[in-house]
Structure formats: C-alpha cells, structure tokens
Amino acid sequence: AQTVTQSQPEMSVQEAETVTLSCTYDTSESDYYLFWYKQPPSRQMILVIRQEAYKQQNATENRFSVNFQKAAKSFSLKISDSQLGDAAMYFCAYRTPSNAGNNRKLIWGLGTSLAVNP
Amino acid sequence: KAGVTQTPRYLIKTRGQQVTLSCSPISGHRSVSWYQQTPGQGLQFLFEYFSETQRNKGNFPGRFSGRQFSNSRSEMNVSTLELGDSALYLCASSLNPGRNEKLFFGSGTQLSVL
Fold first, then answer.
1. What are phi and psi of B83, to 5 degrees?
2. How does pLDDT run across B56-80, given as a tens digit for each residue?
3. What is the pLDDT of residue A101?
4. Do B43 and A108 touch (CB under 8 A)?
5. Is the Cβ pair B42, A111 closer than 8 Å?
C-alpha cells in the first residue's frame, strides 16, 4: 500500500529566510502525481505545487519549489523568502494513477506545522 | 466565481445520532470528493462522486454514505455517530475526476460528537 511520510511535525523559519519541508513516499507505481497543500487556520486546503512523476524537471511556483528525487521517493518543498502568511500546516500528498480504478485517491502525510518568525 | 461551500461549518451531535453534511462545488465542477481529517490519522479519503455516481470509496464503515445530485452538490451522511467520528470533514471539487485535475477544497465542517 502506498504511504506518505512527513518526518517533521513542526518547523520554524525566520521571515525572509528559506526553509525546506521533507516528504517521502512509498509506491510500486511509476506514474503518479505528488502535491503539496497548505492549510492555514481558515482550514481551507490550498494547492501549493504539484509534480508529475514522469517529469524530471522540478516544479516551481513563484517562491515555492520542489526537489523531486524519484529513485529515492523523496519530494521536499522549498519556500524561499518566507513571509508571515506562509505560516500554516503543510501536507504532502500522493495521487494514485488513473489506472488504479476504484482505488484512485489522494494519500496524505500527517503534515508539518510551519511557523514564520518576524 | 464562488469557491467550494460546505455547510454547516460547525456541528455538535451526541452518540447514536445521525448527521448530514453538505457540499456545493464550484460552478461547472462535476467531481466531488470527501475527506476526514483528524489529528491522529491525518486526512483519510472517504469517497468520490462524479455525475451522480460514486466512483471510489475509502475504507470506512457503512455508517458513512454519500450522494451527489444532478446539480453536482453532494451530501455525506453518518449514521449512529460514535465519539471517534469527531473530525473535520473536507469536501473538494474538480472539473472531472482525472488524476491531473486540480482539487479545490472547502473550509470543512467541524463535527464534534459528545
């Protein structure tokens, strides 16, 4: 069964600094999607960035970028120039392939709580 | 364009009761999925609906059920509530259930079972 592990329950970063959140996953599939979601106190889950497993190039969205290491099954999120508004829970998620049929779903890590210090 | 709307935002029930949660997707979105979020278990997939049909179901007991209406609005029902059902229930919508589809989440319904 696929699993997603976030080994850092809590992280903190100084405003304007860079922080990296870790995520590892386990799967026997070769074609899948990986996501990072942000959940602020408003509870609404917001997509930060996504990566297609068959693409070697790491995804980038403004100040957010990932380091995708397929062989190591690692998918870390780097936040550059951290802002106070980045404070939130961050979840790593794996989406099973479309050929998974009735087992197609998002599998989530337990999250990393990120604090941004002024 | 309005986002995903979940009602109610908070709910308090007692054991043995049943509850119905509602989710209105973004206009034009036809796929709706539900997740249960608890501090200990994280987010767990409940089910996914597309065009009024349940396409996928997670590993939850039969007390958890759902449906989708012709206007894509979805409801989930939990019968015979247990203390362990206390959780944040999140709904997400997308245009279609494709694997690359971006999911848009609502702010959830916080259910407390006493």
1. -55, -35
2. 888 999 999 999 999 999 999 999 9
3. 57
4. yes
5. yes
